[in-house]
Amino acid sequence: MITHINTTEEYKDFIKDGLVIIDFFATWCGPCRMLTPVLENIDQEYEGKLKIGKIDVDSLSDIAQIYNVFSIPTLLFIKNGELKATQVGYIPQKSLKRLIDKNF
Question: Is 20 part of the annotated catalytic residue set?
Answer without folding.
Answer: no
